[in-house]
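Private note to self, pasted from the team thread so I don't lose it. Backbone tokens:
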């Protein structure tokens, strides 16, 4: 049985850990609200972009063309992987890694945002073309530079497909890993549920022409898809970390109670043993 000094040290250590996890929980909660608001606000803009693209695809598909719409037969794939720089956010990165292995080519090359999955890909000896660091909160300029690099690789014919692997924010307790196709741009009706179409542009009139509008809106669409994926990933990171740190704090408090109970039992046993020794000595002196 552990002595009193060892138990006191363990209680002190667990209390210090609980203070740290509690502080991390509060920091994550403060960042989480802003990140969630950004992610949710961006969905409305994304849905309107989807609506415009859907209308052009439905009504002018034979009249317009663009390099970002070119569907190719090859299987050369480039994947943008968005993970976290830090850990302590539960199974967030692990779930994304499983999704990545299941839905991307074994010969795919990668562009990474976040250290966690970059390290994993390096260990697997995958080709990483570029690694980006994104500020918090996410500025649109960071997304634009990433999107420009991905677009350049596709337009120059180095890759036939560009995808994004990220974690979509559902709510504070639910985050869903996803792999979506970025390039070539698919008609919005073929995108996943996370890019659901809203709005009706069937009566829209495009000036100067549908092709000119498409040439302007497609780069913006690609930029915003990357930006929205970054926002969703950042919201899920703070949410997952807040939940993980709350669970760690609760477990620490529970462990402290158990250690305190054990400490009291050991202390009581020591007191009882001392009393028995005193009583025995007194009896022996009679």
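Design output:
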């Amino acid at each position: 049985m552990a002595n009193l000094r060892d138990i006191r040290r363990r209680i002190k250590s667990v209390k210090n850990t609980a203070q740290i996890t509690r502080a991390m929980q509060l920091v994550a909660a403060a960042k989480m609200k802003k990140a969630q608001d950004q992610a949710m606000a961006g969905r409305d803009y994304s849905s309107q972009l989807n609506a415009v693209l859907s209308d052009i695809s439905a009504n002018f598909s034979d009249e317009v063309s663009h390099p970002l719409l070119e569907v190719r037969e090859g299987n050369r794939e480039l994947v943008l992987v968005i993970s976290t720089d830090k850990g302590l956010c539960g199974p967030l990165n692990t779930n994304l890694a499983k999704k990545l292995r299941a839905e991307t080519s074994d010969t795919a090359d990668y562009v990474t945002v976040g250290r966690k999955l970059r390290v994993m890909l390096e260990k697997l000896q995958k080709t990483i073309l570029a690694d980006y660091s994104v500020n918090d909160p996410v500025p649109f300029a960071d997304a634009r530079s990433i999107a420009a690099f991905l677009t350049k690789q596709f337009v120059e014919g180095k890759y036939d497909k560009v995808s994004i692997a990220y974690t979509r924010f559902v709510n504070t307790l639910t985050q869903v890993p996803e792999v979506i196709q970025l390039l070539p741009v698919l008609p919005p009706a073929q995108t996943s549920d996370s890019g659901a179409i809203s709005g009706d542009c069937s009566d829209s009139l495009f000036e100067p022409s549908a092709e000119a509008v498409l040439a302007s809106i497609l780069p913006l669409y690609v930029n915003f898809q990357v930006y929205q994926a970054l926002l969703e990933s950042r919201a899920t990171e703070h949410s997952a970390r807040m939940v993980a740190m709350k669970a760690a704090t609760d477990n620490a408090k529970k462990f402290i109670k158990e250690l305190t109970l054990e400490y009291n039992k050991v202390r009581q046993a020591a007191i009882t043993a001392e009393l028995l020794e005193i009583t025995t000595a007194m009896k022996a002196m009679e």
